[in-house]
Design a protein that fits this description.
The complex is a heterodimer of chains A (414) and B (126).
Chain A: H1 2-57, E1 61-65, E2 71-74, H2 76-82, H3 86-89, H4 103-115, E3 120-127, E4 133-144, E5 150-159, H5 161-196, H6 205-236, E6 244-246, H7 248-258, H8 260-265, E7 269-274, E8 281-283, H9 285-301, E9 308-316, E10 319-326, H10 347-352, H11 360-370, E11 374-380, E12 384-392
Parallel strand pairs in A: 7-9
Antiparallel strand pairs in A: 1-2, 1-5, 3-4, 4-5, 6-8, 9-10, 10-12, 11-12
Helix pairs in contact in A: 5-6, 6-11, 7-9, 9-11
Chain B: E1 6-10, H1 14-24, E2 29-33, H2 36-46, E3 50-53, H3 62-71, E4 79-84, H4 90-97, E5 104-106, H5 112-123
Parallel strand pairs in B: 1-2, 1-3, 3-4, 4-5
Classes of the chains: A alpha+beta (414), B alpha/beta (126).
């Protein structure tokens, strides 16, 4: 017994020492953990500070909101761009400088970021504190936690007023230049024509051949100039839409008549089907004719001799639907989504018809969409293409503008 | 031999004017003017059967010349073909709707033989 006491007595101080060491180690560990956490927090705070410096100094306007759109952070650029001070913004929603877009825009906006929880990208028109209107490109992203719950929104806006004014200047330049080109193009055309006609003596075979090349080259330029003028008027929004009660069959018949010669030369088999119930609709005949002329002339151009062209106009579900089918080279699947882009031409089209300018469908799509219509196509490479143009019974809305678009854009050599 | 009908060409671009004269002088008696002022003087002097009228001209444009022509008793019934590169903008649409005959050709989109045919048609009242 005494030996145990002695033994414990012997070990007790060691226990104290071990205890101290243990407690000290624990303490050390705790301290270390704490210091590490503090270091982490400091580092995070430094990172956060770095991000805050970046956000504060960004030239784009950056705003963080809660899920209801209430702003709890706005960088300096928000003040610089909108004119509102942080005090006027914090606790408010972006309606402070917005709210002037049509209702449908905001509906789509909230549906995208709140219901679908997807980022929204678009152009928005806002109003500064001094009343000045400006256009911005906006990116709004929902901030989600791991469970896809909505924490808030990050909104970035960039003032694009300058970009837009540069675009305007470009379009105005194109319009001015194209207009100036018209005079010399007429001069060349007429003298080539008069020489071909023998007005200065009968030309020999070679002279006739060369003169025809000059004449055709000139017509290509005139077509391009007409199309550039139309493109610039579309981009500047200066073209007018003058709808009047129109028999769409008459417009189509005129276009078909204009394209008689090229159809004859290529021995194209034409089939025209007009439904019996086609109503008179308020359409701008010039614009409708530009649309039909372009679609039909494309169909003819991209067909081999002997091909078949089918034109049909139907009226169903209060919609006037025109379809134009060809048995031409078709549009490759991987290029179909670019067909309406400015200057775009599909590879097989470029091979078949080297001298196209790629502007026709851009013009046609702009006209149809301005007229509250729809345009689309179905196509298979090597088989053919069908274009569809749809107008509602209400027709085209009137639009004020400086000038009409050029009617017969394409100058077809006879 | 029947006397040739008289055509007055009012156009500021010299090359355009000269080309038209070249084409038309075989069949018509052709007179020229390079702006609205000169055009009015020539119209009063020569009393042409038809005027080929440009719009964009210095000193006096085609619309103004046409208005003054119509206001005069010697010019109010003169036949006019508007011949311009303007694509039917406000000025022309306004002029045409005032009851002017809608004889209107776009220079760069027209062959010169089409100009000749149009002149022939208008002169024979088609």
């Amino acid at each position: 017994m005494l030996q145990w006491v002695a033994l414990t007595g012997y070990f007790t101080p060691w226990l104290y020492v071990v205890g101290d060491v243990l407690s000290f180690s624990l303490l050390a560990l705790l301290l270390h953990g704490l210091l590490h956490a503090i270091e982490e927090a400091k580092k995070n705070a430094k990172d956060l500070q770095k991000f805050k410096i970046a956000a504060d100094n960004s030239m784009d306007h950056i705003v963080l909101t809660d899920p209801n759109g209430t702003i709890f952070y706005a960088n300096e650029s928000v003040h610089k761009i909108t004119g509102f001070s942080p005090l006027e913004i914090l606790g408010e929603t972006p309606r402070v400088w917005g709210g002037i877009m049509p209702k449908e825009f905001y509906q789509k906006f909230w549906r995208t970021i709140k219901e679908e929880k997807k980022p929204f990208v678009g152009h928005i028109t806002n109003r500064k504190k001094n009343g000045q209107i400006y256009t911005a490109e906006t990116h709004v992203s929902p901030i989600l936690d791991e469970k896809e719950g909505l924490l808030g929104f990050l909104a970035i806006e960039r003032d694009i007023t300058k970009e837009e004014s540069i675009d305007r200047a470009k379009s105005e330049f194109v319009s001015l230049a194209a207009h100036q080109l018209r005079t010399p193009l007429s001069v060349i055309r007429w003298y080539a024509e008069m020489l071909l006609n023998g007005d200065a003596g009968a030309p020999n075979k070679k002279q006739t051949q060369y003169l025809k090349e000059i004449y055709r080259g000139d017509l290509r330029m005139v077509t391009l100039v007409n199309m550039l003028l139309n493109v610039s008027r579309i981009d500047l929004g200066t073209f007018l839409v003058d709808p009047k009660p129109t028999d769409i069959r008459e417009v189509m018949n005129e276009v078909i008549k204009d394209l008689e010669k090229p159809m004859e030369m290529k021995k194209i088999k034409l089939n025209v089907m007009y439904a019996d119930n086609l109503p008179i609709v308020n359409l701008d005949p010039v614009l409708t004719s530009v649309v039909f002329e372009n679609i039909l002339s494309n169909a003819i151009k991209y067909m081999n001799p002997g091909g078949a062209l089918t034109v049909s106009i139907k009226f169903q579900n209060a919609m006037l639907l025109t379809s134009v089918s060809d048995t031409g080279c078709g549009i490759p699947k991987h290029q179909q989504n670019q067909m309406f882009s400015k200057f775009f031409r599909a590879d097989n089209a470029k091979t078949l018809v080297p001298d196209g300018n790629g502007l026709g469908l851009y013009i046609v799509k702009a006209i149809v969409e301005h007229s509250k219509g729809r345009i689309w196509f179905e196509s298979e490479e090597g088989k053919g293409t069908t274009f569809y143009v749809e107008f509602s019974k209400e027709g085209m809305p009137k639009k004020e503008g400086r000038t009409q678009l050029v009617g017969k854009m394409e100058q077809v050599p006879v | 031999m029947a006397t040739k009908q008289k055509i007055l060409i009012v156009e500021d671009e010299t090359q355009i004017r000269k080309a038209l004269v070249e084409k038309l002088q075989a069949k018509y008696e052709v007179y020229e003017a390079e702006n609205g002022n000169e055009g009015l003087k020539a119209a009063k002097n020569k009393l042409p059967n038809l005027i080929l009228l440009d719009i964009l001209m210095p000193k006096m444009d085609g619309i103004e010349m046409m208005n003054q022509l119509r206001a005069s008793d010697w010019g109010k019934d003169m036949k006019i073909i508007i011949f311009t590169n303007l694509d039917s903008d406000d000025r022309i649409l306004g002029a045409i709707t005032k009851g002017e005959p809608a004889y209107y050709l776009i220079k760069s989109n027209t062959d010169i033989h089409e100009v000749e045919e149009k002149i022939r048609d208008v002169l024979s009242d088609k």
